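Lecture 7 notes: from sequence to structure.

We start with a single chain of 391 residues. Read the sequence below before looking at the structure.
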Amino acid sequence: MAGSLMDDISETSPVSDGADYGGHSVQMSCLLIDDDPIDIRYVSWLLQQANGFDLKVQTASSLREARRLCTQQEFDLYLFDYWMGEESSVSLLQELASRSGAPHMMVVMSSLDDESFQSLSLESGADFFLAKQNLSHLTLEKLLQRVFYAASKRRANTQHHLDEDQRTDAWMRSLRSQLDKVHGYSVLAMSSLHNHTREEAKSHLADAIACLSGIRNEMPYMNASLSNGHKRSEVVLSPFDVSQLLSSTVEACSLEAEQFSKRVSFYEQVEDSIILSDPMLLQDLLTITLRGAIRHGEMASDIAVSYELQPTNLEIFISEFGASEDAEVENYDYEGREVMQLSNLFGEERTGSFLVADHILKRLQGSWAMGRRDNNTEIKLRIPLNIDALN
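Now the structure, written as tokens:
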């Protein structure tokens, strides 16, 4: 991302008269560091003219004052003048770049459009270098848009990690609860045997075994979660027959479906089904999601797996038909972050399954969606097939 801001703008479309931020002005903070009072007033004025932004600008006329402000708070945007008297701002730039939770964006300005200044600034941690003679409403508004989107992405990533931590905590609490139940039922069984109430002891042991079975079912997902965390981060693309992969996965899950009084079937809709993706990750994702669907919903229901090939996407549908077998699912009511609702598919005791599937889907750059109509539920998995999107 680092480079000359003017070069970057010249390669993109012009900034519109006002970016669309939901009809509200975006509030952001900025620290402007410059020893020239005229430049401070001019740049501050330009910043306030940016459409769609409500900027709180603080200024510092020396590096000492700037350091003091930086210790008090973090800013969304840092604008540095390269020369601060006889000293350059590179030292402060390096200090801020080395901090954990580094600033969202740092830009160095100079009245001298020198390549050596630009190179040193970028190497020291600046995101952009901007010659002061190129300062304008256009350049600063473009800059603010980049700051906003970078900050939004950072907040989304932070929220995702918080959500994942919450799901992991819930999963661990459920496992601890199951272990506590096993212990409790075992104590009750021993007490019943001591009191010569054999039938009661059998009942308690059966409850303990049921809890242990639930924990045992989670162990493969626990191992998969740990191994996925240490696996290669890159997706390995290879051509394969997606129809054959889906068919074999459905067949592998059919016996488990029968144990839950359900029937799972695969509907092939595409003749040419050779795609380019990661077959191992895709199979893991489908297996986990299909097993979740088997455990979800009404007993004795039918589950259908189908797919559609788009020019750039593979869409896989896992549909569970309840009382209204012919009702078509149309409204997908869970999108984006609300996809956390999909964890309900697996149940709290199987949150680990959802975490593994969610992790695999992100590695494939894919997305979830879940729809309902009457008693029917459908999960839609969208996987990009574009090579550029996967790299």
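The chain is about 50% helix and 20% strand. Keep this in mind for problem set 3.
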